[in-house]
C-alpha cells in the first residue's frame, strides 16, 4: 500500500473532507454515505452498500482508487479496523437489548435500550467535541444583537429549548416559526450584527436548508448543528458541529444534541455576563 494512503479511519476521514469539493458527483455521494454509515461500509457487501448509497457497485471501486487504495476491499479494512479499535461496550449492550426486546423481554427492555442509546450519544460527543470550535461558536453568539434559532421536524424540540433558555437568560432571540407562513419575513429581519443557530439532521428538512441559505446570503453568521460534514448546513456555517446520535429500534436519540444546545446556551449567557462586567469595570 502506498505510504500516502490513509491507514486509519481518522486519517481517511480527514482526507475525504479535504477533497470533498473536488470529488466527482457520484463519488462524493458514496463518500458522504461512508462517513455517515461507517459500520455499514465495514461489513456490507459491495452490492448492498451501493444500493443503500444509491450508486453503482463500480462507483465503490472508483471511490477507493480515488483515495489511493487498490480496490474497495482494501478500503473496507480501514472501516473494519475502526470497529476493532472502538470501545464496543455500549454497542454490545444495545445489541443485547435489541435481542431481549425481540425475545419479548417486556417494556423494561425498551426503556433500557433508549437509555443505552442516550449514553452512547453522550459518550461520543464528549470524546469528539472540537473545543476551539465550541469557543468560537460561543464568542460569535455572545456578541450577536439577536440570536435566530432555526429547526424543523425532529430537530424542533432542540430549537424550542434554546429559545426558551435564551429568553430566561434575557438574551434577545427569535425562533423562526410562524403559523401564518411568515418565516421568510422573519428571516429577512436578520443582519450581519445578528447570528443564527441552525439545526438539521438527515434527511434534512428542505425548509431549514432554504431558510439557512437565505439568511447566509444576508451575511448573517451561522452556527450549525448537524450530523455530517456533507450536510447542506455545513457549507453555510461559520462554525458547525457534527453530532452522531445513536438509535434504538430505529428511533434516534437527541441526547447529545440537547447537551450541546444546553452547553452553548448557558456558555453564551456566561460570556455575555463576563463581557458586561469588564465594561463596567
UniProtKB/TrEMBL annotation:
Pfam families, alphabetized: HTH_6, SIS
Domain SIS: 137-277
Keywords: DNA-binding, Transcription, Transcription regulation
Domain HTH rpiR-type: 10-86
InterPro entries per record: Homeodomain-like_sf, HTH_RpiR, RpiR-like, RpiR-like_SIS, SIS_dom, SIS_dom_sf, WH-like_DNA-bd_sf
SUPFAM superfamilies in the cross-refs: Homeodomain-like, SIS domain
Name this polypeptide is given: MurR/RpiR family transcriptional regulator
Amino acid at each position: 500500500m502506498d505510504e500516502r494512503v490513509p491507514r486509519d479511519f481518522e486519517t481517511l476521514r480527514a482526507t475525504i473532507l479535504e477533497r470533498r469539493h473536488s470529488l466527482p458527483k457520484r463519488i462524493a455521494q458514496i463518500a458522504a454515505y461512508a462517513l455517515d454509515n461507517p459500520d455499514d461500509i465495514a461489513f456490507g457487501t459491495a452490492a448492498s452498500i451501493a444500493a443503500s448509497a444509491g450508486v453503482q457497485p463500480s462507483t465503490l471501486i472508483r471511490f477507493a482508487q480515488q483515495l489511493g487504495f487498490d480496490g474497495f476491499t482494501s478500503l473496507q479494512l480501514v472501516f473494519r479496523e475502526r470497529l476493532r479499535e472502538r470501545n464496543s461496550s455500549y454497542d454490545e449492550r444495545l445489541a443485547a437489548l435489541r435481542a431481549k426486546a425481540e425475545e419479548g423481554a417486556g417494556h423494561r427492555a425498551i426503556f433500557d435500550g433508549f437509555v443505552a442509546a442516550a449514553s452512547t450519544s453522550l459518550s461520543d460527543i464528549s470524546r469528539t467535541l472540537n473545543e476551539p470550535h465550541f469557543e468560537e461558536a460561543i464568542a460569535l453568539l455572545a456578541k450577536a444583537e439577536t440570536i435566530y434559532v432555526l429547526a424543523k421536524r425532529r430537530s424542533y424540540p432542540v430549537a424550542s429549548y434554546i429559545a426558551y433558555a435564551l429568553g430566561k437568560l434575557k438574551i434577545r432571540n427569535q425562533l423562526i416559526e410562524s403559523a401564518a407562513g411568515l418565516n421568510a419575513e422573519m428571516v429577512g429581519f436578520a443582519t450581519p450584527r445578528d447570528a443564527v443557530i441552525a439545526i438539521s439532521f438527515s434527511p434534512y428538512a428542505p425548509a431549514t436548508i432554504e431558510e439557512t441559505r437565505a439568511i447566509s446570503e444576508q451575511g448573517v453568521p451561522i452556527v450549525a448543528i448537524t450530523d455530517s460534514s456533507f450536510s447542506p448546513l455545513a457549507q453555510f456555517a461559520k462554525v458547525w458541529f457534527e453530532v452522531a446520535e445513536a438509535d434504538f429500534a430505529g428511533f434516534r436519540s437527541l441526547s447529545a444534541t440537547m447537551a450541546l444546545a444546553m452547553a452553548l446556551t448557558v456558555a453564551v449567557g456566561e460570556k455575555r455576563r463576563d463581557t458586561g462586567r469588564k465594561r463596567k469595570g
